[in-house]
Design a protein that fits this description.
Shape: globular
CATH superfamily of the largest domain: Type I PLP-dependent aspartate aminotransferase-like (Major domain)
Largest sheet: 7 strands, mixed
Strand order of the largest sheet: 1-7-6-5-4-2-3
Bound molecules: pyridoxal-5'-phosphate
CATH class of the largest domain: Alpha Beta
CATH architecture of the largest domain: 3-Layer(aba) Sandwich
Length: 397
Protein backbone atom coordinates (compact mmCIF):
# COMPACT_ATOMS: atom_id res chain seq x y z
CA UNK A 1 0.00 0.00 0.00
CA UNK A 2 1.27 3.47 -0.85
CA UNK A 3 1.89 5.56 2.28
CA UNK A 4 -0.40 8.44 1.26
CA UNK A 5 -3.23 5.97 0.49
CA UNK A 6 -2.81 4.42 3.93
CA UNK A 7 -3.35 7.83 5.53
CA UNK A 8 -6.32 8.60 3.28
CA UNK A 9 -8.12 5.34 4.08
CA UNK A 10 -8.20 6.09 7.81
CA UNK A 11 -11.39 7.99 8.56
CA UNK A 12 -12.70 9.13 11.89
CA UNK A 13 -15.95 11.00 12.30
CA UNK A 14 -16.70 13.59 14.95
CA UNK A 15 -19.10 12.96 17.79
CA UNK A 16 -21.96 14.59 15.85
CA UNK A 17 -21.02 13.25 12.44
CA UNK A 18 -18.43 15.94 11.84
CA UNK A 19 -16.03 15.25 8.97
CA UNK A 20 -13.14 15.77 11.38
CA UNK A 21 -12.88 13.79 14.61
CA UNK A 22 -13.95 15.53 17.80
CA UNK A 23 -11.14 17.03 19.84
CA UNK A 24 -10.70 15.49 23.28
CA UNK A 25 -10.47 18.61 25.41
CA UNK A 26 -9.72 16.86 28.69
CA UNK A 27 -6.68 16.05 30.79
CA UNK A 28 -8.41 13.33 32.79
CA UNK A 29 -11.16 10.76 32.18
CA UNK A 30 -13.93 9.30 34.31
CA UNK A 31 -14.35 5.58 34.99
CA UNK A 32 -17.69 3.87 35.50
CA UNK A 33 -16.15 1.57 38.08
CA UNK A 34 -13.18 1.74 40.41
CA UNK A 35 -12.08 -1.69 39.21
CA UNK A 36 -11.61 -0.42 35.63
CA UNK A 37 -9.42 2.39 36.93
CA UNK A 38 -7.22 -0.15 38.72
CA UNK A 39 -7.02 -2.34 35.60
CA UNK A 40 -6.05 0.66 33.48
CA UNK A 41 -3.12 1.44 35.77
CA UNK A 42 -2.06 -2.19 35.48
CA UNK A 43 -2.20 -1.78 31.69
CA UNK A 44 -5.08 -4.26 31.37
CA UNK A 45 -7.98 -2.13 30.19
CA UNK A 46 -7.59 -1.64 26.47
CA UNK A 47 -9.44 1.34 25.04
CA UNK A 48 -9.79 3.16 28.37
CA UNK A 49 -8.29 6.61 28.73
CA UNK A 50 -6.63 7.49 31.97
CA UNK A 51 -4.80 10.78 31.79
CA UNK A 52 -3.71 12.76 28.74
CA UNK A 53 0.02 12.49 29.46
CA UNK A 54 -0.49 8.77 28.81
CA UNK A 55 -2.82 8.97 25.79
CA UNK A 56 -5.83 10.84 24.49
CA UNK A 57 -8.31 10.18 21.67
CA UNK A 58 -6.96 13.07 19.55
CA UNK A 59 -3.37 11.90 19.99
CA UNK A 60 -4.37 8.35 19.07
CA UNK A 61 -6.08 9.50 15.85
CA UNK A 62 -2.97 11.35 14.73
CA UNK A 63 -0.75 8.49 15.89
CA UNK A 64 -2.73 5.90 13.92
CA UNK A 65 -2.51 7.97 10.73
CA UNK A 66 1.27 8.33 11.14
CA UNK A 67 1.67 4.62 11.87
CA UNK A 68 -0.35 3.87 8.72
CA UNK A 69 1.94 6.18 6.74
CA UNK A 70 5.07 4.41 8.01
CA UNK A 71 3.61 0.89 7.93
CA UNK A 72 4.23 0.23 11.64
CA UNK A 73 1.82 -1.41 14.09
CA UNK A 74 1.26 1.78 16.02
CA UNK A 75 2.93 5.00 17.20
CA UNK A 76 3.16 7.50 20.02
CA UNK A 77 3.04 11.25 19.35
CA UNK A 78 5.06 13.64 21.50
CA UNK A 79 5.40 17.35 22.19
CA UNK A 80 8.47 17.67 19.94
CA UNK A 81 10.82 15.68 17.74
CA UNK A 82 13.43 15.77 20.51
CA UNK A 83 10.74 14.48 22.89
CA UNK A 84 10.36 11.44 20.62
CA UNK A 85 14.10 10.91 20.06
CA UNK A 86 15.16 11.19 23.70
CA UNK A 87 12.32 8.97 24.92
CA UNK A 88 13.20 6.19 22.47
CA UNK A 89 16.92 6.29 23.24
CA UNK A 90 16.34 6.38 27.01
CA UNK A 91 13.94 3.44 26.64
CA UNK A 92 16.31 1.33 24.52
CA UNK A 93 19.46 2.03 26.57
CA UNK A 94 20.41 1.33 30.16
CA UNK A 95 23.54 2.54 31.96
CA UNK A 96 26.48 0.77 30.35
CA UNK A 97 24.80 0.44 26.96
CA UNK A 98 26.22 1.85 23.75
CA UNK A 99 24.77 3.53 20.65
CA UNK A 100 26.22 3.57 17.15
CA UNK A 101 25.08 6.77 15.46
CA UNK A 102 25.66 8.57 12.22
CA UNK A 103 27.94 11.55 12.79
CA UNK A 104 25.80 13.78 10.56
CA UNK A 105 22.58 14.09 12.51
CA UNK A 106 20.39 16.91 13.74
CA UNK A 107 22.38 19.15 16.10
CA UNK A 108 20.03 18.56 19.05
CA UNK A 109 20.25 14.78 18.70
CA UNK A 110 24.03 15.03 18.41
CA UNK A 111 24.23 17.16 21.56
CA UNK A 112 21.95 14.73 23.43
CA UNK A 113 24.06 11.68 22.54
CA UNK A 114 27.39 13.44 22.95
CA UNK A 115 26.82 15.52 26.11
CA UNK A 116 23.67 14.38 27.89
CA UNK A 117 23.34 10.60 27.56
CA UNK A 118 26.86 9.96 28.98
CA UNK A 119 25.60 11.37 32.31
CA UNK A 120 23.49 8.21 32.47
CA UNK A 121 26.28 5.90 31.39
CA UNK A 122 25.11 5.71 27.77
CA UNK A 123 27.95 6.27 25.31
CA UNK A 124 27.90 6.73 21.55
CA UNK A 125 30.27 6.03 18.69
CA UNK A 126 29.73 8.48 15.82
CA UNK A 127 30.46 7.01 12.41
CA UNK A 128 30.15 7.77 8.71
CA UNK A 129 26.82 6.02 8.13
CA UNK A 130 27.54 5.46 4.43
CA UNK A 131 30.61 3.39 5.41
CA UNK A 132 28.93 0.08 6.27
CA UNK A 133 32.19 -1.54 7.34
CA UNK A 134 32.85 1.25 9.83
CA UNK A 135 29.29 0.90 11.13
CA UNK A 136 29.69 -2.83 11.72
CA UNK A 137 33.11 -2.41 13.31
CA UNK A 138 31.74 0.07 15.85
CA UNK A 139 29.17 -2.36 17.23
CA UNK A 140 30.12 -3.86 20.59
CA UNK A 141 28.57 -6.35 23.01
CA UNK A 142 26.97 -3.35 24.74
CA UNK A 143 25.37 -1.80 21.64
CA UNK A 144 21.58 -1.69 21.77
CA UNK A 145 20.75 0.85 19.05
CA UNK A 146 21.91 1.86 15.60
CA UNK A 147 20.74 5.43 14.95
CA UNK A 148 20.67 7.63 11.86
CA UNK A 149 18.57 9.90 9.65
CA UNK A 150 17.33 8.54 6.33
CA UNK A 151 18.50 11.77 4.72
CA UNK A 152 20.93 13.52 7.02
CA UNK A 153 20.91 17.06 8.24
CA UNK A 154 22.44 19.18 6.79
CA UNK A 155 24.66 17.29 4.33
CA UNK A 156 21.87 15.19 2.82
CA UNK A 157 23.77 11.91 3.07
CA UNK A 158 21.43 9.03 2.37
CA UNK A 159 21.43 5.99 4.63
CA UNK A 160 21.24 2.59 2.93
CA UNK A 161 18.45 1.38 5.20
CA UNK A 162 18.23 -2.16 3.77
CA UNK A 163 21.95 -2.71 4.37
CA UNK A 164 21.84 -1.15 7.85
CA UNK A 165 18.84 -3.33 8.73
CA UNK A 166 20.83 -6.43 7.82
CA UNK A 167 23.64 -5.37 10.14
CA UNK A 168 21.20 -4.53 12.94
CA UNK A 169 19.52 -7.95 12.63
CA UNK A 170 22.87 -9.74 12.64
CA UNK A 171 23.78 -8.21 16.00
CA UNK A 172 20.24 -8.15 17.35
CA UNK A 173 20.14 -4.37 17.86
CA UNK A 174 17.37 -1.89 17.08
CA UNK A 175 17.66 0.20 13.93
CA UNK A 176 16.21 3.65 14.68
CA UNK A 177 15.64 5.99 11.73
CA UNK A 178 14.80 9.69 11.93
CA UNK A 179 12.77 10.18 8.72
CA UNK A 180 12.05 13.91 9.20
CA UNK A 181 13.65 14.99 5.89
CA UNK A 182 11.87 12.43 3.72
CA UNK A 183 8.28 11.71 4.76
CA UNK A 184 6.41 9.61 2.16
CA UNK A 185 9.52 9.51 -0.10
CA UNK A 186 11.22 6.94 2.10
CA UNK A 187 9.47 4.28 4.21
CA UNK A 188 12.17 3.04 6.60
CA UNK A 189 10.06 0.32 8.24
CA UNK A 190 9.28 -1.26 4.87
CA UNK A 191 13.04 -1.27 4.19
CA UNK A 192 13.77 -3.09 7.46
CA UNK A 193 14.08 -0.45 10.20
CA UNK A 194 12.61 -1.23 13.63
CA UNK A 195 11.67 2.26 14.77
CA UNK A 196 10.84 5.37 12.72
CA UNK A 197 10.90 8.85 14.25
CA UNK A 198 9.70 12.17 12.88
CA UNK A 199 9.87 15.75 13.97
CA UNK A 200 6.30 16.66 12.98
CA UNK A 201 7.42 20.29 13.21
CA UNK A 202 8.80 20.14 9.67
CA UNK A 203 7.16 18.82 6.49
CA UNK A 204 4.44 16.77 8.16
CA UNK A 205 2.74 19.69 9.87
CA UNK A 206 4.10 22.03 7.22
CA UNK A 207 2.88 25.34 8.54
CA UNK A 208 5.64 26.26 11.01
CA UNK A 209 3.07 26.95 13.72
CA UNK A 210 3.96 24.22 16.20
CA UNK A 211 6.52 21.66 17.26
CA UNK A 212 5.67 17.98 17.55
CA UNK A 213 7.12 14.51 17.21
CA UNK A 214 6.26 10.85 16.78
CA UNK A 215 7.74 7.41 17.38
CA UNK A 216 6.40 4.74 15.01
CA UNK A 217 7.08 1.12 15.95
CA UNK A 218 5.71 -2.14 17.30
CA UNK A 219 2.83 -2.28 19.77
CA UNK A 220 5.29 -3.75 22.27
CA UNK A 221 7.67 -0.78 22.00
CA UNK A 222 4.89 1.81 22.26
CA UNK A 223 3.38 -0.01 25.27
CA UNK A 224 6.83 0.14 26.91
CA UNK A 225 7.18 3.86 26.17
CA UNK A 226 3.75 4.54 27.72
CA UNK A 227 4.15 2.24 30.71
CA UNK A 228 3.15 4.11 33.89
CA UNK A 229 5.97 2.49 35.89
CA UNK A 230 8.98 2.72 33.60
CA UNK A 231 7.95 4.22 30.26
CA UNK A 232 10.14 7.06 29.02
CA UNK A 233 7.33 8.82 27.11
CA UNK A 234 5.02 8.66 30.14
CA UNK A 235 7.64 9.59 32.76
CA UNK A 236 9.73 12.18 30.90
CA UNK A 237 6.44 13.85 30.04
CA UNK A 238 6.93 15.34 26.56
CA UNK A 239 3.29 14.65 25.68
CA UNK A 240 1.52 16.38 22.82
CA UNK A 241 -1.51 18.50 23.56
CA UNK A 242 -4.79 17.21 22.09
CA UNK A 243 -5.66 20.47 20.33
CA UNK A 244 -2.35 20.35 18.51
CA UNK A 245 -2.76 16.71 17.58
CA UNK A 246 -6.08 17.62 15.93
CA UNK A 247 -4.54 20.47 13.95
CA UNK A 248 -1.54 18.41 12.81
CA UNK A 249 -3.87 15.62 11.62
CA UNK A 250 -5.68 18.10 9.39
CA UNK A 251 -2.38 19.28 7.90
CA UNK A 252 -1.25 15.67 7.37
CA UNK A 253 -4.17 15.29 4.92
CA UNK A 254 -2.33 17.41 2.33
CA UNK A 255 1.19 16.08 2.93
CA UNK A 256 1.35 14.11 -0.34
CA UNK A 257 0.43 17.13 -2.45
CA UNK A 258 2.91 19.33 -0.63
CA UNK A 259 5.77 16.81 -0.82
CA UNK A 260 5.34 16.48 -4.59
CA UNK A 261 5.58 20.26 -4.99
CA UNK A 262 8.52 20.62 -2.56
CA UNK A 263 10.37 17.88 -4.47
CA UNK A 264 9.51 19.31 -7.88
CA UNK A 265 10.71 22.77 -6.92
CA UNK A 266 13.88 21.54 -5.20
CA UNK A 267 14.80 19.37 -8.20
CA UNK A 268 14.25 22.33 -10.52
CA UNK A 269 16.46 24.68 -8.50
CA UNK A 270 19.15 22.03 -7.90
CA UNK A 271 19.50 21.35 -11.62
CA UNK A 272 19.62 25.05 -12.47
CA UNK A 273 22.12 25.90 -9.69
CA UNK A 274 24.38 23.03 -10.73
CA UNK A 275 24.15 24.09 -14.38
CA UNK A 276 25.23 27.61 -13.37
CA UNK A 277 28.33 26.10 -11.75
CA UNK A 278 27.32 26.42 -8.11
CA UNK A 279 28.36 23.56 -5.83
CA UNK A 280 24.98 21.98 -5.18
CA UNK A 281 24.03 18.98 -3.07
CA UNK A 282 20.64 17.37 -3.77
CA UNK A 283 19.92 13.64 -3.69
CA UNK A 284 17.99 13.95 -6.95
CA UNK A 285 21.14 15.01 -8.83
CA UNK A 286 23.20 12.30 -10.50
CA UNK A 287 26.28 13.98 -9.03
CA UNK A 288 25.10 13.20 -5.48
CA UNK A 289 27.19 10.36 -3.99
CA UNK A 290 24.10 8.52 -2.75
CA UNK A 291 21.76 9.31 -5.65
CA UNK A 292 21.41 5.62 -6.47
CA UNK A 293 20.84 4.58 -2.85
CA UNK A 294 17.99 7.10 -2.59
CA UNK A 295 16.58 5.98 -5.94
CA UNK A 296 16.56 2.33 -4.97
CA UNK A 297 14.68 2.88 -1.73
CA UNK A 298 12.30 5.73 -2.61
CA UNK A 299 8.58 5.80 -3.23
CA UNK A 300 8.97 7.40 -6.63
CA UNK A 301 5.97 9.68 -6.91
CA UNK A 302 7.02 11.90 -3.97
CA UNK A 303 10.44 12.71 -5.40
CA UNK A 304 13.78 13.40 -3.72
CA UNK A 305 12.48 15.82 -1.11
CA UNK A 306 12.54 19.56 -0.51
CA UNK A 307 16.02 20.00 0.97
CA UNK A 308 19.12 21.11 -0.89
CA UNK A 309 22.38 22.82 -0.03
CA UNK A 310 24.73 25.06 -1.96
CA UNK A 311 28.25 26.10 -1.05
CA UNK A 312 29.10 29.72 -1.76
CA UNK A 313 32.60 29.60 -0.26
CA UNK A 314 32.51 31.87 2.75
CA UNK A 315 30.13 32.64 5.60
CA UNK A 316 30.22 36.34 4.65
CA UNK A 317 28.98 35.57 1.13
CA UNK A 318 26.41 33.13 2.50
CA UNK A 319 25.03 35.74 4.88
CA UNK A 320 25.00 38.43 2.21
CA UNK A 321 23.12 36.19 -0.21
CA UNK A 322 20.57 35.05 2.37
CA UNK A 323 19.86 38.61 3.50
CA UNK A 324 19.36 39.73 -0.08
CA UNK A 325 17.11 36.80 -0.96
CA UNK A 326 14.98 37.59 2.08
CA UNK A 327 14.75 41.22 1.03
CA UNK A 328 13.63 40.14 -2.44
CA UNK A 329 10.85 38.07 -0.83
CA UNK A 330 12.31 34.75 -2.02
CA UNK A 331 12.15 33.17 1.41
CA UNK A 332 13.02 33.67 5.04
CA UNK A 333 16.35 33.58 6.80
CA UNK A 334 15.18 31.06 9.36
CA UNK A 335 16.02 27.63 10.68
CA UNK A 336 13.59 24.72 10.37
CA UNK A 337 12.07 23.27 7.22
CA UNK A 338 8.91 22.18 5.48
CA UNK A 339 7.20 25.58 5.32
CA UNK A 340 5.23 26.85 2.27
CA UNK A 341 7.85 29.56 1.94
CA UNK A 342 11.49 28.77 1.23
CA UNK A 343 13.64 28.86 4.37
CA UNK A 344 17.40 29.23 4.31
CA UNK A 345 20.14 29.18 6.92
CA UNK A 346 23.88 28.58 7.23
CA UNK A 347 24.05 25.32 9.20
CA UNK A 348 27.64 25.79 10.41
CA UNK A 349 26.68 28.81 12.47
CA UNK A 350 23.11 27.79 13.36
CA UNK A 351 21.45 24.37 13.44
CA UNK A 352 24.71 22.43 13.53
CA UNK A 353 26.62 24.83 15.77
CA UNK A 354 26.48 22.22 18.56
CA UNK A 355 29.05 20.31 16.51
CA UNK A 356 32.61 21.55 17.27
CA UNK A 357 34.35 23.36 14.40
CA UNK A 358 37.04 20.75 13.77
CA UNK A 359 34.39 18.02 13.64
CA UNK A 360 32.33 20.15 11.25
CA UNK A 361 35.32 20.34 8.92
CA UNK A 362 35.94 16.60 9.11
CA UNK A 363 32.38 15.81 8.07
CA UNK A 364 32.50 18.27 5.16
CA UNK A 365 30.34 20.95 6.72
CA UNK A 366 31.93 24.07 5.26
CA UNK A 367 31.20 27.61 6.49
CA UNK A 368 29.81 28.79 3.14
CA UNK A 369 27.11 26.14 3.13
CA UNK A 370 23.52 27.36 2.77
CA UNK A 371 20.70 24.93 3.48
CA UNK A 372 17.46 25.50 1.59
CA UNK A 373 14.10 24.10 2.51
CA UNK A 374 12.47 24.80 -0.83
CA UNK A 375 8.94 26.16 -0.58
CA UNK A 376 5.76 25.53 -2.52
CA UNK A 377 6.34 28.36 -5.04
CA UNK A 378 3.83 28.24 -7.89
CA UNK A 379 6.28 29.47 -10.54
CA UNK A 380 9.70 28.09 -9.70
CA UNK A 381 11.34 29.43 -12.87
CA UNK A 382 10.42 32.94 -11.73
CA UNK A 383 11.95 32.14 -8.33
CA UNK A 384 15.11 30.83 -9.96
CA UNK A 385 15.53 33.95 -12.09
CA UNK A 386 15.24 36.18 -9.01
CA UNK A 387 17.68 34.00 -7.06
CA UNK A 388 20.13 34.15 -9.93
CA UNK A 389 19.96 37.95 -9.83
CA UNK A 390 20.73 37.90 -6.11
CA UNK A 391 23.66 35.53 -6.67
CA UNK A 392 25.07 37.78 -9.37
CA UNK A 393 24.66 40.83 -7.22
CA UNK A 394 26.65 39.38 -4.27
CA UNK A 395 29.29 37.94 -6.63
CA UNK A 396 28.54 34.26 -6.15
CA UNK A 397 27.81 33.90 -9.86
C1 LIG B 1 13.97 19.48 13.74
C2 LIG B 1 14.54 18.13 13.77
C3 LIG B 1 14.53 17.36 14.94
C4 LIG B 1 14.01 17.91 16.25
O1 LIG B 1 12.65 18.13 16.23
P1 LIG B 1 11.89 19.22 17.17
O2 LIG B 1 10.49 19.06 16.75
O3 LIG B 1 12.48 20.55 16.86
O4 LIG B 1 12.14 18.80 18.57
C5 LIG B 1 15.04 16.09 14.87
N1 LIG B 1 15.54 15.58 13.73
C6 LIG B 1 15.57 16.29 12.59
C7 LIG B 1 16.13 15.67 11.38
C8 LIG B 1 15.08 17.59 12.57
O5 LIG B 1 15.13 18.29 11.43
Amino acid sequence: MKPADAIQDLQYFGEFGGVNPSISDSSTYTFLSAKTMFDTFEGNADGCYLYSRHSSPSNLYLGEALAAMEGTETSNVSASGMGAITAVLMQLCHAGNHVVSSRTIYGGTYAFLKNFAPKFGINTSFVDITDLEAVEKSITQKTTALYCESVSNPLLEVADIRALAKIAKKYNIQLVIDNTFSPLSISPKILGADIVIHSLTKFINGSSDTIGGVVCGSQELIDCLRNVNDGAAMLLGASMDSLRAASILKNLRTLHIRMKQHSHNAMYLAEKFEYEGIKTVYPGLKSHPSHNVFKQQMNKEYGFGGMLTIDVGTLIKANELMELMQKQNLGYLAVSLGFYKTLFSAPGSSTSSEIPEDEQKEMGLSEGLIRFSVGLDNDIERTFQSMKKCMKSVGVL
